């Protein structure tokens, strides 16, 4: 696995898949990037350069735990761009990784080619997702055999009561079977220090980010899953409205990992935007 040095000396790792023009991919979590796989076959169209965020996967644990903070991770993405020798990068962020991608776009707009946000988190832009938004999406799955227990757990969590997070898991996939159960386990963050610090105080400056994004000229695509309770289409649409000329795509019958739910549709949408 190739590595490079972050500005503070932390050794960071990344993996590559496919051929063609590079697409830098940032995972959510912060979790090991392996759960992204080859994004449903997107590697047939682009050379995926998938970053392991510091303290995850093959990347080293930093000396300063505060450097796990989302705004500070922007420097790691910029160091990867320089390491790759690219004047500009096309950048994809999934879930919480979209917050990092948004901050990179805000801070380095001249070094960004295209921006793809998949099932994006939106805290960096100050967009709050309400419990009712999540429940409205969840009710689309009312015919599923696991719905009653999962919906009760979701209600508890959105209302601030103790909830069974494991019971909510089926909402994150169109199918809840052995393969998606294994993927869900793989996608869980293992470095709790990184999780705790990612959104620590000072990690986000929504007014500054929104102001910078309002002047962004790079093409952007935001892809939401119709069934995604984590990043509901309504919140993704609100985020898309902040980026001039951004396009919104809602993938039918898909949830938080749309490249697993319908890889053909996902790859067609992304490859068309990135070409």
Q: Could you characterize what this model shows?
A:
This protein has 275 residues and is of the alpha/beta class. The chain has a single domain, classed as Alpha/Beta hydrolase fold, catalytic domain (Rossmann fold, 3-Layer(aba) Sandwich). Helices cover 36% and strands 16% of the residues. The radius of gyration is 18 Å and the shape is globular. It starts with a strand and ends with a helix. The model has no long low-confidence stretch (mean pLDDT 96).
Number of helices: 11
Number of structural units classed as domains? 1
Going by CATH, the architecture would be 3-Layer(aba) Sandwich
CATH topology-level name: Rossmann fold
What is the mean predicted local confidence, pLDDT?
A: 96
Radius of gyration: 18 Å
- Order of strands across the main sheet: 1-2-4-3-5-6-7-8
**CATH-defined superfamily:** Alpha/Beta hydrolase fold, catalytic domain
As a percent range, the share of helical residues equals: 25-40%
The secondary structure category is alpha/beta
- What overall geometry do the principal axes of the alpha carbons give? globular
Summarize the structure in short.
The protein is of the alpha/beta class. 36% of the residues lie in helices and 16% in strands.
Supply the key terms.
alpha/beta; eight-stranded mixed beta sheet; 11 helices; 275 residues; 16% strand; Rossmann fold; globular
